[in-house]
Structure formats: C-alpha cells, structure tokens
Description:
Elements: E1 2-15, E2 18-24, E3 27-30, E4 35-49, E5 54-63, E6 74-80, E7 88-102, E8 106-114, E9 117-128, H1 129-132
Parallel strand pairs: 3-9
Antiparallel strand pairs: 1-2, 1-4, 4-7, 5-6, 5-8, 8-9
Amino acid sequence: MEVEIFSLCDAATHAAGKLNILGAFDIVAARKFPLVYPHCGIALRLRFDRTEEGDHKIRINFIDADGNAVMPPLEASVRVRFAPSAQSVCANIVLGINGLKLDKPGQYAVDLAVDDQHRKSLPLNVMHAADQSRHDPPQSGGEPAGN
C-alpha cells in the first residue's frame, strides 16, 4: 500500500474515481486563541496492489506538540476490490472536520495509520497572525472567518 495523497485542506470531494482537493494547507494564523477552525478536511488517496485486496481500517489522529489528542480519532474503512485486469487500485477517502479547536500556537501533527500501522504524518504550524509575516511564503495558510 502506498500513500499517494494525504492532505489537510479546506474541502475535498471524490466522484467517479477522482479526488478533488481545495485549499491544501500546513500553516494557520489567528489573531486570538483558542482558534476554532469552522471546517476543514483530510483528503487521502491510497494505492493498493493485488496482494492487498480486502478490507482495510483507516485511523487519523490529530495531536499537539505534547502528543495530546486535539480531537477524537477519525476512523474509516475501505474495501479494496480488483477488476480481473487491474494490477493496482486506488481508494479515495475524504474526512470532514467541523469545529477544530486549536488551543494555542505551536506545532501540531495529523497522523495516518492503515491497519494499525503508522504510514504518514502531516505537520501543521499554528501561529499568531502577527508572526505569519515572518514566514515564507506569506500567502500560505489562512485564518478562518471570525478570528
């Protein structure tokens, strides 16, 4: 199994085998804390080879710099099936997150496990809006409305 895409984003959809991602980010700036990010999501595209046909369990943990959970884990499952001529197949998974609360600035991580094995981590840098101007590129990330 290969992780082709794993992204924190403003929104994502999947239809007809296509994964659509809007606003991928790894920096969030806010004027005040705690920050409540109204809506974001995880876009995930996994490629399986023929030996991995069957059911697979997906688990995503969002943690702070101290390793504490920011929210309950996101869980999903995928059933991988192959057409007779296919050598590999992709599974697109979109998970929505509403009301993500980030208590303070700092480094956060989004960890992906497939079948209880860690596969990948995404960093998220959360900062005060005044500090954002010191980071390249300044247009990265964004502040949710109302903060």
